[in-house]
Amino acid sequence: MLLIPCPWCGPRDETEFHYGGAAHVAYPHDPAALSDAEWAKFLFFRDNPKGPFAERWSHSAGCRRWFNAVRNTATHQLLSVYLPGESQP
Amino acid sequence: MAATGAGAEVLPEHPDWLWRTPTPEASYDVVIVGGGGHGLATAYHLARDHGITDVAVLERGWLAGGNMARNTTIIRSNYLWDESAGIYEHALKLWEGLEDDLGYPILFSQRGVLNLAHSPQDVREGTRRVHANRLNGIDAEWLDPAGVKEVCPIVDVSPDLRHPVHGATYQPRAGIAKHDYVAWGYARAADAMGVDLLQHVEVTGIDVHDGRAVGVLTSTGTIAAGAVVLCASGHSSVLARTAGIDLPLSSHPLQALVSDLLEPIHPTVVMSNAVHVYVSQAHKGELVMGAGIDTYNGYAQRGAFHVVEEQMAAALELFPVFARAHVLRTWGGVVDVSPDASPIVGLTEVDRLFVNAGWGTGGFKATPGIGDCLAATVAHGKPHPLVEAFTLERFTTGALVDEHGAAAVAH
Amino acid sequence: MTPPLFRTEAGGLVDRSRPLRFTFDGVAHEGFVGDTLASALLAAGVHRMSTSIRLGRPRGVLTAGWEEPDALVQVDEPFPEVLPATTLELYEGLVAHSTAGQGRLSTQRDPARYDAMHLHCEVLVVGAGPAGLAAARDAAGRGDRVVLVDDQPQVGGSLLGTGATVAGVPGGQWAEGVRAELEAMPDVRVLTRTTVLGHYDDNYLVALERRTCHLGADAPDHVSRERVWRIRAGRVVHATGAHERLLGCVGNDLPGVLLVGAARSYALRYGVLVGRRAVVMTADDAAYDAVVDLVAAGLQVAAVVDTRPGGAAPHRVARVAELGVDVRAAYGVVGVRTPVDLDLGHTGSFVAGVRIAPIEHGDVVGAATDVDADVLLLSGGWTPALSLWSHAGGTLVWDADRSAHLPGVCRQRVEVVGAAAGQPTLVDLPADAETGAAATSWLVPGEDGARDEIVVDRARDVTVGDLVRATGAGLRSLEHVKRYTTAGTGSDQGRTVGMLVAEVVAGQPDGAAIGSLPPTAARPPYVPVSFAALAGRDRGVRSDPVRVTSMQDWHVEHGAVFEDVGQWKRPWFFPRDGEEMDAAVLRESHAARTGVAFMDASTLGKIELQGADAGMFLDLLYTNLMSSLAVGSVRYGVMCRPDGMVFDDGTVLRLAQDRWLVTTTTGNAAAVLDWMEEWLQTEWPHLRVRATSVTEQWATIALVGPGSRGVLAVLSPDLAVAAEDFPFMTWRDTEVAGLPARVARISFSGELAYELHVAWWHGRALIDAVVAAGASAGITAYGTETMHVLRAEKGYPIVGQDTDGTVTPQDLGMSWIVSKKKADFIGKRSFARADTARPDRRQLVGLLPADGTTRLVEGGQVVAMAELPAPPVPMLGHVTSSYDSAALGRPFALALVAGGRARIGDRLFVTDQAFQTVPVQVVDPVLVDPEGARRDG
How deeply is C840 buried, as exposed, middle or buried, from its count of CB atoms within 10 A (0-12, 13-18, 19+)? Predict the structure, then answer.
C-alpha cells in the first residue's frame, strides 16, 4: 500500500488512486501524418524501466485529478509528484 | 529414514544428481538469457531436437528462481483465439508426455479447470470459448451450476450470492504440475546434454555489432554468442532496450499465496475472473492461490497487501469452507504484460537476437510448447508456425491476438 | 481427569483459581486461565501432540511460541481449525486432537465475525519486550502518537518467561509498570494479542489482533473474533526479539526434546515443568542462565553439555556447577534412549535417557556415557527475528562474532532494537558479562558418527541426509536446497533451523562459508492468518455494493426477476402467473411492438458536460460530428479507443449552447466519465469543459410502442406530442404527471418511443403515474431481456455483447457514423492500418436458422460446412445474440462473421449444444421494419 502524495490532497493510500501508466506520451499532433509504425509506437509502446519512471496517477477516490509522479519501479519509492504539463523534475 | 507418509501424500524424491556448476566459457553457439522455465525448456529442445548443445543459460539469481518458482502452476489450453489455442494446446500435449520425456516426476495432475461465469454475459463468453475450443480440438465443456457442484462440491453455487455462479467452462485435461520439478527436470536433462547452466551471472546488456547480436555483457564479463535468446519475462524490456529494441510491455507485480496443509478438500482447479480468484490444492495439501495483478509497474517482486485481502474476501464468497484455512506465505513475481495479453515471440530487427516475452500470467502453462517452438525458431532462423502470429509487427498492422475480451481469464 | 503431574507448587502467570476443562485426543484434562494448550498438556505429562507428516514419527512440542514447528493440533470445538498448541490460549470446553500434518476444515459456515481498522501514528513499536517497551516509552515521552503491538496477552516479551530483573525489579512487574505508564498517556495505544503480519511500502504494516479467540464458546457474537489493523507509521521500531535455534543430534525430534528457552518459559510463565530430570545441550551461554531458573523452579538438571570446545564463560559454568549440575565443554548428545519403541500410543516424553560423549571438530572422540533423564533441552543460541525487517526491504549482514545475521540498512524509516539487533538486553546481567565464544557448529553426530538420520526440520521431516543429498545433487543455493528438501516450508517457516541447514549445506565439499550463504527470503505473513480474518466484513452483500434505482420497490412488488449488470440490479423480466422467461419475454416484446410498454432505464449512464468547448471535445471523442447538433436535438454516437475498437455508444442531447447530456451504457458509465476526465486533464487542458456524472440525478423510464404517444399525452397534457410537433431525436422540457421532466424522443427498439427523465427522487412517483396513465391501454412492464430482443430485431448492437474489444464501427455496419470530414477523432488513425482495413474482418450480420424454429446458442461458432471435419476447424465467427422473436414469429440471431456483409444470402452453419451444426441463412442485421416506418408511431 503505497502512500501517494496527491499534489492537491496530500498523502493518501494507494487504493484511492487509479494508475495511468507512463507519463509524457502526448497524443500526436496530426495522427494522419504518422506512419503505421509511428502510430503503433503511440498506441502500444511505453517505457518500462527498472528504476525511476515518470508515470500518471489519478486521485480517483479523492479530488479526481490527474498528476504525474516519478517512482522507482525497483523499490516502489515515490520520488516526486508534479502537475500535468509540467516537465519531469 | 524411509518416508512412510503418515497423513499427506508424499512428494516424489528428486534425483541424486541435478546439474553441474560450470565455469563460463568465452563463447557459445547460443546464449539464453534467463534461467526460468522458458529458458531451460528452450535449451533442452535446442540440444535434444536440433543437436545444438553449445548453449549457455544465464541466470542472474538461482536457477528457476523468478516467476517459475512463484507461479500458481495452472496448466490449461482453453484460450479463445486460434493462435493462442494453438500454442497452449501444443504445450498441453507436451505436458502429457513430459514426465517420460524428462525422466523426472513433475506431478502433472490433470484434475481439470473450471472457469466460472457470474453473469449472463460471462455465460455467453464462456460458451463462445467452449465452442471455439471444441472446433480447435481442445476438450471443453459447459457446465451449469449443478454440474459445477458435481466437479467441485465446495463451490457455493447458491443463487443468493452477490455474484452467483451461472455455470462454468470445464477443461478436464487441464491441471497443475509442480513447478520446481518441471524446471529442474529441464535443467537436468539440458545439463546432461552439455548445456551450461550459469547461475548468478547477470546479463547487463546485449552486444550488437552491425545489426547482429554477437554476445552478452554480464556481471562477470562478456560472453560471445552465435545467437542470443531473451527469456527474461519481467526484465525483457530492460534487456531488449540494450539492443535498441523497444518492446510494448509493462512489468507488474503479481502476487500469490499458499495456505497451511489441509486434508484433500479441493479436487480441481477453479478460476473466477469476475471475482479474481484462482485456486487449487497442491499435492502436499496446501491451497495455492493467485491474486490480481497490482496496477502499477514494478520490479520489486512484491505487491500490496490490500490485493491479498480483496482476494480472500472473493475466495470466501465462492468457498465459505476456506474460512479457517490460514495464509502461510505470500510472495510476488514480476509479469510482463503486453497490450493484447498475448506473447511476443520470434525474430527481431537485430539479426540473431530472438525474443520471447509478454507472457503475462500465462508463461508457466506454455513452458513445454514455447521451449519446442522457440528452439525451432532459433535453430531455423524463422518463426515456428505456432508462434508466427505473435510477432512484434502485429502491433503495427493491428492484427492483435486479443485475449482480454471473451477469454480474459487471467492465468 | 488426569491430575496435573508437572505443575509447580506455585509461580507462573496462570490463574490457579480458575481451572479450565478441555479434551485432547479424547482424554479429559484440566488447565488454568493463562495456559496455552501446550502448557496445559505438558502439565499433564502429555508431550506427544502430533505425528510427523512424512516419516510418521511421534512429535511433541519444541517451543513455547509461534516458531513452533511441530505441535500443530486440530481444534474440533468450538470450531474446527488447525493451530500450534503453543499459541492456543486455553479455554473452557476446548476439544482438540493431534494431527498428522494436515488440517481439516469445517463444512459448516464460520459463525464468527471479523473486521478491520485503520491506525495512524508517528511511531509503531513491534514487540513489547524490554527493548520495545523502552522504545515506546521514549517515543511517547517526546509526545509522539505511539502504537505498541505485542502478540502475547501480556507485555514483557522474554521477561515473562525468565527470572530476569530490570533495574532490580522483577521483569514482569517492570513491564506492567511501563504499560501502565504508557496507557496513561493520551496518544498511546497498546495492542496485545496482536501480531504484525507484514511490513510493506511506506511504513504500512498489517497486524492481526486475536480479540475473542481465547474465550472459546464464550466469545460474544457481537465482537469480532479477529481484527486486521492497517497501520501507517512515520517510523517503525522492530523490537521483535530472537528465536532460539535447534541443535542437530540423534533423537532431537522426539517428544520430550524441547528448546531450553521453551522449558524456561513453561516453568516460569506457566508453572509447568517439562520433565523431572533434564539433560541440556547448548552451544550458547544464555542457556546457563536458563538452567539456573529451571533448577530454581524445581527441575532437576543432570548435566549441561556444551558443544563448544571452550564451553561457556567461567562465571556461568561456576554458577551452574554450584547447583550440582555436571557441566561439560566439548561434549555433545550422541543418542537418546527411548522408554518404548516409537509406539504411537505413548503420550508422555519419549526420552528415558541421554547418551553424551566428548566431541571435537564435529566428531565423537571418546566413549559415550548414559545419563538418566526424561527430557532433553537444546539451545543452539539465538537468531535475531528479522522477518519484518526483511519485509520492509532491510538488508542482512553476517556477524561472525555472534554467528548471526544482523540488520544492515533499510530505505524505510525503521530501526531494530534489542535482541533482534543483537544488542545487549536491558535486563540486569551478572556482574561478569563475559561470554563464551559464539557457536560455529549446530550439529552433533550420533554415537557411531552417523549424521544422516538426524532431523533438521521437524515441521517437514527433513534430515541431514536429505540436505546432503541436495548438495550432492549439485545444489548450492539455500533456496534450491529448501525446495529440494522442503526444509523451512512449514508453518513455522523454519525459524529455528536456518543455521543448522546452512551449516550442513556449507559443510559439503566446495561449500561456501555459512555467513556467505544468503538466507532464504522472509515473506509475509509473519504468522499464519486465517482467510476469514483477511476477508473481514467484505462478504456477502458487502462484497460488492448493490446499486438499485429509485423504482426498485415497484420492481420487487411486481415480481421482477433481476439481472446483475455491473453493480446494478436490473429487472430482467417480469413473469406473470408462473411464466417462464421465454414466455414472459415474448409477451413483453409483443406488447412493445403492438401496444405500449415501459422499462426502467435509470441505470443508463448520464454525464453532463458544460463549457464553451464541449462541442469540440465531443467531436474528438465520438466518431461522428456532434458540434453541429442543434439545441433541443439528440444524436446517437459511438466512441472508440485510440486503437479504433468500439468502446461505448449512446445518445447526446444538446441542452443549451454550452450544455450537453451524454448517455452511456449502464456498465460503462464510470469508465466513460474517467475517459473524459483523462483526456481533458492530461491531453486537452485548454478545452473549457466540465464533466459531471448525473446518472443518479435522473430517474428514467423508456416508454415504448405505438401506444406510447397516447400515454404521454395523458401524462403531459401541456406537451404537443404530435409527430411533427415533437420529432424523432429531439427533447422537450415539460412536466410529466406534474413532475418537472425532460422528455426525449429516442428509440432503442425502432418503435415510437420516449425517454422520460425526472429527478431521481421522483422515480417511484413517475413509474406509478406511467402505470396509471397506461392502464387503459394495457401498458406492460418489460425488463432488460426484452430490451435486448427489441434492439436486436433492429440490428442495434450492445457494446460488450456484440462487441468484444476487437470490433470497429465499420465492423458493426456503422460506416455511416464514422465521419470522413473531421480531421481527427480518437481512433480514426487506426482505421487506416492494414488489419483494420481487411475485407474479411468479422462483421455484424443477422442469422436466420434455416428450419425456422431452432434458437441458436449464443457463443456458437459459425462455420462453412455442415459436417465438421477433424480439428482444427476453420471458424468464421460466432453468435453474439440469439432470441425468439414475437415480431418475426421465429428465432433469429446476430453474429460476427468474417467478411459477413459479403455473405448475406449465403448458407452457413452454427454449432449447437451437442457440437453438431445448424444451417442458417446470413441476412442483414435489421430484421424488423428495415424502412424505419414505425418510429413515428
Answer: exposed
CB contact under 8 A, A15 and B306: yes
What's the predicted TM-score (pTM) here? 0.95
Q: Which residue of C has its CA nearest to A36?
A: C833
Instruction: Quote the Cα angle for C804-C809-C813, to 5°.
Output: 105
- Rounded to the nearest 5°, which phi and psi values hold at C477? -85, 140
C-alpha cell at C282: 547448548
- Rounded-to-integer distance, Cα C381 and Cα C711, Å: 88
Best mutation site among B124, B139, B196, B301 for testing chain C: the one with the most C CBs within 10 Å?
A: B124
Question: Hey, are the CB atoms on A31 and C829 less than 8 Å from each other?
Answer: yes
Question: In chain A, what residues touch C685 (CB-CB under 8 Å)?
Answer: 84-85
Element of type H or E holding B69: helix B67-70
Alpha helices in C632-707 (DSSP H): 669-678
Strands (E), C427-502: 455-457, 462-463
Q: Collect the ranges in chain A with pLDDT lower than 70.
A: none
Q: What is the pLDDT of residue B9?
A: 53
Q: What is the pLDDT of residues C296-355, one digit of tens each?
A: 999 999 999 999 999 999 999 999 999 999 999 999 999 999 987 766 678 999 999 999
Instruction: Kindly give, in sequence order, each residue whose CB lies less than 8 Å from that of residue B156, ignoring residues fewer than 6 positions away.
Output: B165, B317, B318, B319, B320
Which residues of C are less than 8 Å from A78 in CB distance? 202
What is Dmax (Cα atoms) for chain B?
Answer: 66
Q: What is the DSSP letter of A59?
A: -
Choose from A19, A25, A36, A63 for mutation: most chain C CBs within 10 A: A36
**Among C201, C205, C534, which would you mutate to test the B interface (most chain B Cβ atoms within 10 Å of its Cβ)?**
C534
CA pair distance C337, C446, nearest whole angstrom: 12
Residues of B in contact with A40 (CB under 8 A): 395-396
Cis? peptide before C872, omega within 30° of 0:
yes
Closest-CA distance, C497 to chain A, in angstroms, reads 30
Residues 243-262 of B with CB under 8 A from A: 246-251
Q: What angle do CA C544, C549, C552 make, to 5 degrees?
A: 100
Residues 6+ apart with CB under 8 A from C846: C795, C892, C893, C894, C895, C922, C923, C924, C925, C926, C927
Query: What is the mean predicted confidence (pLDDT) over B319-336?
Result: 95
The angle formed by the CA atoms of residues B167, B171 and B173, to the nearest 5 degrees, is: 155
Nearest CA of chain C to the CA of A54: how many Å? 14
Cα–Cα distance between C745 and C733 in angstroms, integer?
Answer: 12
What is the three-class DSSP state of C656?
strand
Residue C406 corresponds to which cell in the numbers above?
A: 544482523
Average pLDDT, chain B: 93
| All three cell numbers of B141 | 465443456
Q: What radius of gyration, in Å, describes the C-alpha atoms of chain C?
A: 38
Which among C204, C824, C833 has the least Cβ separation from residue A1? C204
Q: Please give the single-letter amino acid code of residue C128.
A: A
> Which residues does residue C248 pair with via DSSP β-bridges, in sequence order?
C443
- Per-residue pLDDT at B406 exceeds 80: no
pLDDT in tens, C598-630: 999 999 999 999 999 999 999 999 999 999 999
C126-147: pLDDT as tens digits: 999 999 999 999 999 999 999 9
pLDDT surpasses 50 at B8 = no
B-C CB pairs within 8 A amount to 271
Distance CA B347, CA C77 (A): 62
Where is pLDDT greater, at C510 or C366? C366
Tell me phi and psi for residue C785, to 5 degrees: -65, -45
pLDDT digits 0-9 by tens, B230-275: 999 989 999 999 999 999 999 999 999 999 999 999 999 999 987 7
Find residue C529's DSSP bridge partners. Answer: B327
Q: For position B276, what pLDDT does the model report?
A: 79
